[in-house]
Amino acid sequence: PRTLLQLVTFLAAPTLGIAAIPASDWVSTRIADVRLVSAASGTDNVDTVPLGLHFKLAPGWKIYWRTPGDTGFPPDLQIKSATNLEKLDWKWPVPSRFTHFGQQSFGYEGEVLFPITARLIQAGKPLGIDATVHALACSDICVPIDVSLNLTLPAGPAGPTVFTQLVSRYRSLVPGPFKGTGLELTVVRVAVVASGPMIEVAIRSDEPLRGPDVFVEAEMNSGFTFGTPKVRLAADKREAVFMLPATVPKDGVLNGLNVGVTIVDGARFAEVQTKVGALGTKTNTWAAVVEPTAPTNVLTWLTMLALGTLGGLILNLMPCVLPVLSLKLLSVLRYGGSEAQKIRWGFLASAAGIITSFLVLAVGTILLKHAGLAVGWGIQFQQPVFLAAMAVLVTGFAANLFGWLEIAPPTFLSSIGNPRGQTGGHFLTGVFATLLATPCSAPFLGTALGFALSRGSVEIVSIFVAMGVGLALPYLLVAVYPGFVRALPRPGIWMQRLRIFLGCALLATTFWLLSIISALTSILWLSAMALLLATAAAILAFSRNRDRRRKSIAAAGFFAFLVLAIGANHQDPGIGSTKFARSVPTSTRAEAVKWEDFDLKKLKILVAEGNIVLVDVTADWCLTCKVNKIMVLDSVQIVNRITYHGVKTMRADWTRPNATIAAYLASFRRYGVPFNVVYGPSAHDGIPLPELLSKSGILKAFDQAAER
To answer: What is the pTM (predicted TM-score) of this model?
Structure first.
């Protein structure tokens, strides 16, 4: 078909006023088709000829920019022999940024043409080029491309060809000077922070920025490289500051280094050669743009305090906090018939533990933010060490309920406000409730968190404390009205059975924590952790003299529970890296929906093409996400709407730290999961959905996004 097309075009060229096709033959490989084309039909009265090196890549493959990033090398055209050729000037269209296994690279996928200008020795003489193309194409693996191309251009009129528009289009994608783009480069300088040297780049725009990116290049083989930028936008989105970590060779000096700076913002782009330190010595710094928020309106602040308190209160009913409700219930029942003063002190201590924990979280968030690190709600659940500590803590509480272990709080906690040493344990219960609450989000909580984390330290502390007050509100109410608890029946043999039941609920929490550890590490680490916990529990049970036989049976049962849990979720014996099953088995109905991995660039393309797109940001440690998935996203109404109306779906997995997903959340002023957005022809910027999804809410968002 391609040969037939070329023949038809050749025969029709005189009629159309376009010269015959001047191009090499396509050279096809398994990965790419390559050819060399000319935008001019001849060489009469011209000193230069516009050419193009044309690549068509197989899906999933990419080739590299002139600065490839952490891996790869750029395409190269090596001349084997030439006629009437002085030299070739190569131009590079604006690249895309790719991230794979934590490494960044810059390049192109799909189709790309590199504009090349051939400078002639003498005008009016034929041009002949016999060359070899060397390139590296990468997907999951990298494969070199080496093909030979031959192009001959006659000494005829230099008219347009069928490739003139194609070459012109890609030439228009080559970044040039900033003048006329509406972009201005204001800062290029060194910024030294605790983590090491960085390059600070700032730009100003005459219209709101859409999604700015920056590429900083040093001279080849200089030893200087620059990492993935972090970007901060001013409130009006007309200023952006980028911070790029710099790798500096031994005895290298970053200040005064010659660099190329390429700025990309949607369809606008520009580049310039400059020196580090030549721009912005007295302009706004990164820190100045970090806090460019407008002064907080008092009414807005009070509203957010109320939402934070309400969100914290609702958090008591969310799945993440359900395991801790067992401890709450037991603590209430333990006070049946007790004195009012004793009840009041215990519940005030638990409330103090919750509020103090939120205050500590607020301080930690402020420190992370000022260090320039990503902040978010529940991000500690992305760390296996934290999960392991939580698994030990939860198992300890379960062992306490089974009567295997007495948990004695530190002396300084035991003595707070009560000389009898009873408040320390209640304080720790409050801390425990807060730790288990953090992977959950609740209605109103996301709005309050987004407000706090996008502003200053005062707002962060106040909103976090308000959330703590909301979560502690049931305890505070009991402390104010202790008569409610005094009316409950006194402890008895029934409570021992209840303790065993509630202990099993905590064991289920241990199982959940171990499943997350497995998703983050491997089955070997999971097995070691589970066996350690089971062995410790068995030792504790055997060490108790009273009713040893029953406790031994219980300990052995716990041991068997953990071992069977590992075996049931070990999907592929013999492979050490096998993970836990991440969710309950999906039905055939749910499997009809094919969720693609989150890709911001592809998302923009799908939306631009007029598709309705549903984005689901989730994590294995988010129980609310699981509830949304089972109750709403996998429901008949939603699956049918997605399947029969061509809705595209993308899922972003935030189980592990991911800067791209964190930045995507922050762009909506959200800092936790679950988070869902619907895009469409009438919703290019997306319609954010509430934390707790509803079928009617999603269907309404689909209709709203589809309106034209």
So the answer is: 0.48
